[in-house]
Amino acid sequence: MWQNLGLTLLVIVATLLCVLLFMVFGWYVVWQLFLSKFKFLRELVGDAGTPQAETQPSEPKAERSAQTRTRNRTSRQRVSFPDGAS
Questions:
Q1: What's 56's DSSP letter?
Q2: How far apart are CA 53 and CA 76, in angstroms?
Q3: Are the C-beta atoms of residues 45 and 35 closer than 8 Å to each other?
Q4: Residue 66: is its pLDDT beyond 60?
């Protein structure tokens, strides 16, 4: 009787441990391949590391905003039509 109960508990604990290890391993793989690319999720988890995309040097914010403003101005220029085309 005690052997059956002990064996049943051992199987239940081993099964739960296997499921837990499988879930942790799956989470790790998904994190490494996909989820770590999202800044919001990294902030939630508290990950201090940065993905490869952010480690590359980028332009300063002032230069980017100046380029954006220049692009916006050039795209808003009026097109002048010949006298009879409008």
A1: S
A2: 32
A3: no
A4: no
